[in-house]
Amino acid sequence: MAIVFEKTEGLTGKPFHYCPGCTHGIAHRLIAESMVEMGILGTTVGVASVGCSYNSYEYFNCDMVQAAHGRAPAVATGIKRTLKDKTVFTYQGDGDLASIGCAEIVHAAARGEKICVFFINNAVYGMTSGQMAPTTLLGQVTTTSPFGRDASYQGYPINVAELLSNLTGAAYVERVCMTDFKNINNAKKAIKKAFKVQQAGLGFAFVEFLSTCPTNWGKAPLDAMDWLKEKMIPQYPLGCFKGEDITVQALDEMIAAKAAGEEVKA
Amino acid sequence: MAQKRLLMKGNEVIAEAAIRAGCRNYFGYPITPQTEVMHYMAKKMVQIGGNFVQAESELAAINMVYGAASAGFRAMTSSSSPGISLKQEGISYIAGAELPAVVVNIVRAGPGLGGILPAQGDYFQATKGGGHGDYRNIVIAPASVQELYELTVEAFNLADKYRNLVMILGDGTLGQMMEPVAFRDEEPIVTYEKPWATNGRGYNDDGSYKREHNTITSIYIDPDVLEVKNNELQAKYELIRQNEVRYEAIGLEDAEIVITAFSTCSRISRNVIRQAAELGIKVGMIRPITLWPFPTQAIADAAAMPNVKAFLDVELNAGQMIEDVKLAVNGAKPVYFHGRLGGNLPTQKEILDKIVAIHEGGKV
Ligand SMILES: Cc1ncc(C[n+]2csc(CCOP(=O)(O)OP(=O)(O)O)c2C)c(N)n1
Ligand code: SF4
Ligand SMILES: [Mg+2]
After folding, report:
1. How far is Cα of residue B187 from the mean position of the Cα atoms in its chain?
2. How many CA atoms lie within 13 A of B252 on its CB side?
3. Ligand 1 mean position to B275 CA, how many Å?
């Protein structure tokens, strides 16, 4: 019988601890598959952050470093500067990246750090039981916005992809979701493009994944998917905000030229 | 050993020593009075193909060190007191993840923004924790520019040897002072294998991976696992206590009064010893070079000597190291204190007056 689907060796095989219907697991698998398909699992170092994915180092089968809350882009900077020929990524939630780690992410992008950042936006602090995040929607009820997020009281959601796309150092910025096959495929394309942008040495690459948190949204898994489509996408439109014109073919040529150049040097 | 003697500023010597020790990764954020370390690195690291990053904050800088150290490279950051407070988060994570790193604190007067002049008010922070959790940093307190050089090189060896953070604790006087320094032709660099480093699993020729994936982490959710981890850390710290205590002892054999002082205060006190001798008072000194591990035994031994009648602890703070001195003396002899605050230095006369008072007070 032909094999149509396999477990990827990009994951360790340890069962995920994520709640049913949580899209952290899909994002993990897509990143892991991409590393294997691109042949970079052995040359990649990932940085886990603080949030429900704090122990993603137990799942990703590449070398992994666990970083303090919000500091993953700084840790990744230290790794990438020393391991220039390796691929480095961070995997961060929205509390981690858009709140406590706001300075680190903005400056890593501004410096044009040659890293990939995978940003899981689920509009809440998942791990600490559903507090308001910087990305929480107006009107959204959370444990710390029990009457719904009120702009006059708690301010407005941050659109991180749009924000970072304004920085010259950011070479590629895209927002995706994982609600159906088409979008999952798009998400994987974005991951691979981000890795290639790094390999080509173009600069900072950022993929925002609109993600579900059924547990803290108080919704069944499928209802959570619907809520994401109906409520989150209007606030956080999908699409490429930077680097849309960079084609995969052009990236492949740049990477090939770089590899050839390096061989000549060596 | 062929030696070139150069007149250099303390802060620049720290930077030069780090480079000589094989450190190619510096991450920092500007703050007086240590900025010359950064200026030196900004130029030199680029010239020699190393990494220099001016970070967006001290938080980011220490986390860049965390990243570079995870990848298996010698890495450092430097700052002064308010910046070191910000680094405490990263320092605790480095302890938990057992990463080798060197952090320089050229202390200025606090608390808060305080002032930019020299102080030793960060002794507690440096030696007792500073960040959260049960951990220890090796803390080294050089007293001259020559020592800044030699001990900074040593700091990188110790960091690798124990997979531990080593802090160089100086102060504004030492960082800003110019003194001759003699560089060695070759540094005593000890190279340690780092099979734990997260630098990529690597591929064999047949496409298989060279090893399983490595992980650098400080989180252990299971209390039993975390307790084992903590016990391992404590065992390491005990080993460091046994092996790495360094101090200088002067004139203990016939001293009536023993001064305890580190770094800048030991320099001032050294002159007082001579002046006291002219007045017929025999004064000795114990100068801790490692503040942690602390030379507890050396001080306890001095306290047990019949000729030693009292201790005088001199610091640029309201009395911090004196707590460790008193623990070591353990009530055997009285321990007096002289300190200055706010960035002021004690004069030799102040210390001498104190010695005379102790002596005349019949307490000796
Ligand atoms: C310095 C610090 N502050 C607070 C926490 C507690 N904490 C753990 S996870 C978390 C929120 C993470 O939320 P997010 O980044 O959105 O990730 P999610 O769980 O939603 O995937 C917080 C505040 C911490 N670990 N460290
Ligand atoms: S709490 Fe939310 S983000 Fe965390 S695992 Fe569960 S569903 Fe996912
Ligand atoms: Mg979240």
Report:
1. 20
2. 18
3. 60
What is the arithmetic mean of pLDDT over B132-161? 98
pLDDT given at position B121: 98
Which amino acid, one-letter code, is at B352?
L
Please name the member of A65, A80, A111 whose beta carbon is closest to the beta carbon of B198: A65
Residue A2 included in any domain: no
Phi (first) and psi of residue B303, to 5 degrees: -65, -25
Q: How far apart are the first and last CA of chain B?
A: 45
d(CA A42, CA A36): 9
Nearest by CB to B55, from A48, A74, A79: name it. A74
In a domain, A131, yes or no: yes
Global pTM exceeds 0.95: yes
Distance A219 CA to ligand 3 centre (A): 16
CB of A208 within 8 Å of a chain B CB? The answer is no
Instruction: Say whether A79 and B71 touch across the interface (CB within 8 A).
Output: yes
Kindly report the number of other CB atoms within 10 A of residue A252's CB atom: 13
Q: Is residue A165 part of a domain?
A: yes
Instruction: Tell me how far apart the alpha carbons of residues A30 and B123 are, in angstroms, rounded to a whole number.
Output: 49
Contacts of A103 in chain B (CB under 8 A): 56-57, 59-60
- Give, rounded to a whole angstrom, the gap between the first and last alpha carbons of chain A: 46
Take residue A207 and report the two structure tokens written for it: 């993929």
Find the mean pLDDT for residues A57-66: 98
Q: What is the pLDDT of residues B113-136, one digit of tens each?
A: 999 999 999 999 999 989 999 999
Q: Is A13 contained in some domain?
A: no
Classify A114 as helix, strand or coil.
coil
Domain B6-181: give its CATH code: 3.40.50.970
Confidence of residue A266 (pLDDT cuts 50, 70, 90): very low
Please enumerate in sequence order all residues whose Cβ is within 8 A of that of A260, keeping only pairs 6 or more positions apart, or say none.
none
pLDDT at A78: 98
Residue A82: CATH number of its domain: 3.40.50.970
User: Residues with Cβ within 6 A of ligand 1?
Assistant: A 50-53, 69, 93-96, 120, 122, 124-128, 133
Domain count across chain A: 1
Structure confidence by residue, pLDDT tens digits, A205-225: 999 999 999 999 999 999 999
Q: Same topology for domains B6-181 and B248-360, yes or no?
A: yes
In this structure, the number of other CB atoms found within 10 A of the CB of residue A37 comes to 13
Domain hosting A127: range is 24-259
Task: Give, in words, the CATH class of B248-360.
Answer: alpha beta
**CA quadruple A178, A181, A183, A186: dihedral, nearest 10:** 110
Cβ separation A77–B53 shorter than 8 A:
yes
Helices (H), chain B: 10-20, 35-47, 58-70, 81-97, 123-128, 145-162, 172-176, 223-243, 264-278, 296-303, 321-329, 348-358
Domain ranges for chain B, please list them. Answer: 6-181, 248-360
Question: Residue A25: nearest ligand to its CA?
Answer: 2
Looking at the predicted structure, is the pLDDT value of residue B167 above 90?
yes
